Amino acid sequence: MSFAAFQLNGKNALVTGSHRGLGAGIALALAEAGANVACHGRDPHPGSVCGDIQALGRRCCYFPADVADAQACSALVKKTVAEFGSLDILVNNAGIIRRAPAVEYSSEDWDQVIAVDLTAVFRVSQLAARQMLKQGTGGKILNVASVLSFQGGVLVPAYAAAKGGVAQLTRAFANEWAAKGINVNAIAPGYMATDNTEALRNDPLRSRQILERIPAGRWGESADLGGAAVFLCSPASDYVHGHVLAVDGGWLSR
User: Fold this and answer.
1) Where are the domains of the chain?
2) DSSP tag of 192
3) How many C-alpha atoms does 38 have within 13 Å on its Cβ side?
4) Alpha-helix runs per DSSP H in 120-254
5) What is the pLDDT of residues 93-117, one digit of tens each?
C-alpha cells in the first residue's frame, strides 16, 4: 500500500465540536491530508482552526449550532453539502461532560449529556449516511468515543453511559452500512489535555493518580489523534468496519 491511500484530496468533511480542542486537531489533520472541512461549535464565532485550514489551501466554513437540537443536526449536514457539493467524511466529536456523585446527579445534567454525546451522534450519522447513500460513492463516519466506552469512570455516569453507547452505535451502524460502502469506526481517546479534563488536571491528587497509570507518562494532546483520524477517514482503512481504536497512551493496557 502506498502513502497515497492516506490522502483525502477532494474529499469534503464535517467535524462537529471542532471550534477548539480535540475536534480542531482532527479537523486540521484532515485538511493536512487534503480534505475541505466544515467546522462546528456552539460559539457563534469561529476559532483559529478555520484560518489554519485555509492557510493550507483547503476550503473551510464554520457553522455555529447546538447539536442537542435535532433541527440543528439536520442543518449542519445540509449546509455542508450546500457549501462543498458533497459530504464524504463525518467526524462526530461534539461532546460535553458533567461531574457529580451518582446519587446527586441531576436529571437535567443526565438529559443534556445524553442529548449531546449520544443522541446527536445517532442523528448526524443517520443524516450523513442518507447523503452518502444518495451520492453513491460511499463515505467515512468516525465517532469519538472514550476509554470510558470500556470503563465506568468516576462521577460521570451520563458520560460513561453515552460513550458506551457511542461504541455500540459504531458497531451497529457498521453492520448495516459496511456493504454499502460506508465505513463506521471510532477513536477512543484516553486522558487528553482538554477543557473537559481541566478539573482533573487541576486536582494534584487525581492528576498524579492518572499520570501514574498512563504508560506514556503524559496527558494526550489533540495532535495525538490526527494520525488515527486520517487513517480511519482515508482509503487506507477501507476494510476496517466497526472498530473502536484506543488512542490512550497505553491506559487500557495497564
Assistant:
1) 8-246
2) B
3) 26
4) 120-135, 157-177, 198-201, 204-213, 226-233
5) 999 999 999 999 999 999 999 999 9
C-alpha 138/C-alpha 239 separation (Å) is 13
Q: Which three cell numbers stand for residue 30?
A: 484532515
SS3 126: helix
Contact 39, 46 (CB under 8 A): yes
> Are β-strands 244-247 and 182-189 bridged in parallel, bridged antiparallel, or unpaired?
parallel
Looking at 3.40.50.720, 3.40.630.30, 3.40.980.10, 3.40.30.10, the CATH number of the domain 8-246 comes to 3.40.50.720
Told to judge if 159 belongs to the known catalytic residues of this protein, a careful annotator would answer: yes
Question: Taking Cα atoms as reference points, which of 183, 162, 179 lies closest to residue 171?
Answer: 183
Q: Kindly tell me the burial class for residue 1, based on how many C-beta atoms sit within 10 Å of its own C-beta (0-12, 13-18, 19 or more).
A: exposed
Type of residue numbered 96: I
Beta carbons of 185 and 241 less than 8 angstroms apart: yes
pLDDT at residue 3 above 90?
no
Count of other CB atoms within 10 angstroms of residue 51: 10
**Catalytic residue chosen out of the listed positions 105, 159, 191, 239:** 159
CA distance 182 to 173: 9
Q: Grid coordinates in use for 29? A: 489533520
pLDDT 10s digits, 34-81: 999 999 999 999 989 999 999 999 999 999 999 999 999 999 999 999
Closest to 9 measured CA to CA, from 50, 75, 57: 57
Mark residue 217 as left, alpha or beta (left: phi above 0; alpha: psi -120 to 50; beta: remaining): left
